[in-house]
Amino acid sequence: MSKIVHIPKIGHVEFPDEMDDGAITQAAGDLHSNARNEGISKFMGEDPAVKGLPHSQKLKEMSTIAGLMEK
Question: Structure pTM?
């Protein structure tokens, strides 16, 4: 029987029985972080303050935000 885990911003995810709890915890954390980062990136890309910037400046600002998200 598989293990079902609820991951915020993702929903219920089914993991195989063969995965140990540590691997499931790591995978769930990675999925949650990726979903959160994608949401922040999407928000920043649609922000009116960022939309009006030249492309090179927009990339610079997004790079700064990406660096903060990694920490």
Answer: 0.62
